[in-house]
Specification:
CATH topology of the largest domain: TIM Barrel
Distance between the termini: 21 Å
Number of strands: 12
Number of domains: 2
Structural class: alpha/beta
Shape: globular
Radius of gyration: 20 Å
Strand content: 5-15%
CATH superfamily of the largest domain: Aldolase class I
Largest sheet: 10 strands, mixed
Order of helices and strands: EEEHEEHHEHEHHEHEHEHEHHHHHHE
Helix content: 40-55%
Number of helices: 15
Length: about 350
């Protein structure tokens, strides 16, 4: 899979997902086969006006290659925020024109812009010019605001405009904005796009929607012809989905079906919480990790019992007690800190407040 000058060694990547896909989740996934990731959507105005948000947006040295996803409605502010992201060291700048959340659309951001193609194209143009030629730009889309002909015409105008502006890739979620996350995504729509735009030089069409298991990711790749697959909710509490998808794509069906052992589960959960502590501090990490713990619990032999225990967590001590009670294995050697230590790059070329984050 290519995104501009970035050559990635697998056609699967972690999507931005509000409230989940922070640096902790991304780093855990990278150690388990994730080659590329996109941040939660960040508000342009927050980055431009709040020094704390700007500081929290700085990528960890381990967290590369990384796309920084921007959300806004002003071409000028989006351009300025995009330039900040380049200065912070993001490898890719991603423009969110997809978010279906009502409060986002109500402020003329995200998926609302699919109904305002002139404004959407002005944003895409301003961001592309601000970023310059060395950093790839990408765009996140849904297949339209609804199922009307006008909505599809607007979508195509925006997509073709992005291509003409030199955008390296578009990730298309195969639901409409009005669907939200309900109902099935339309794989045939992605297949049609791949047939039309998949061979455009320097451009990659990426797919999104209903990827819950590794088999879903590989099926989307094979059935639609997209160049890569964005994994969103399927990666919550399941960082192994990336290794499994790689194995399945390589023909190793046994490896793809293998569930993580209790030891591997504990290793990932401990690692995730340790990283979350460093990102958020104890109180916020404990609360944030409750819901992620529930997702991890589905792999445990007693998922309901473990889920009940995770729901009661409010501190590091509580977290450790759950692990000691329900993941009773010989304690692994303490993993050294990875923050500030960059791993070998998966890209062959080109990589040189929470309140501002929202759903992609």
């Amino acid at each position: 899979m290519r995104i501009g000058s970035l050559a990635l060694d697998a056609p699967f990547f972690q999507a931005g997902l509000a409230g989940y896909s922070d640096a902790a989740m991304r780093l855990v996934a990278r150690r388990r086969g994730c080659t590329y990731a996109v941040t939660e959507a960040m508000l342009d105005q927050a980055l431009l006006s709040d020094p704390r948000e700007l500081a929290s947006a700085e990528p960890d040295p381990c967290d590369h290659p990384l796309g920084g996803q921007l959300l806004g409605h002003s071409p000028e502010e989006m351009a300025a925020a995009a330039r900040l992201m380049v200065d912070l060291g993001y490898d890719v700048v991603d423009v969110n024109l997809a978010c279906p959340v009502k409060k986002v659309r109500g402020k003329s951001r995200g998926g609302h812009l699919l109904s305002a193609p002139d404004r959407a194209l002005a944003i895409l143009s301003a961001v592309r010019q601000a970023v310059g030629g060395d950093t790839p730009c990408t765009v996140k889309l849904r297949r339209g605001t609804d199922d009307s002909r006008e909505a599809e015409a607007n979508f195509r105008r925006i997509l073709e405009g992005a291509i003409s502006l030199g955008y390296a890739a578009a990730t298309v979620h195969a639901r409409t904005v009005s669907q939200g996350y309900a109902g099935p995504s339309d794989g045939s729509f992605l297949a049609g796009l791949a047939a039309t735009y998949g061979a455009v030089p320097g451009f990659s069409l990426l797919g999104s929607g209903d990827v819950r298991e590794a088999s879903d990711a590989v099926a989307m790749l094979r059935r639609t012809g997209v160049a890569g697959v964005s994994v969103a909710r399927g990666a919550i509490g399941n960082p192994w989905i990336f290794y499994q998808a790689r194995a399945l794509l390589a023909g190793d069906e046994t490896g793809a079906r293998e569930l993580p052992s209790l030891a591997k589960q504990r290793e990932a959960i401990e690692e995730h919480f340790e990283l979350a502590l460093r990102v958020h501090g104890e109180r916020r990490a404990a609360l944030r990790m409750r819901k992620i713990g529930l997702a991890y619990a589905r792999f445990h032999p007693c998922p309901e019992e473990v889920s009940r225990a995770f729901r009661e967590i409010s501190s590091s001590a509580d977290w450790q007690a759950v692990l000691d009670s329900h993941y009773c294995i010989e304690r692994q050697a303490k993993r050294p800190s990875t923050f500030g230590k960059r791993p070998p790059s998966t890209a062959s070329e080109g990589a040189p407040s929470q309140s501002s984050r929202t759903d992609a």
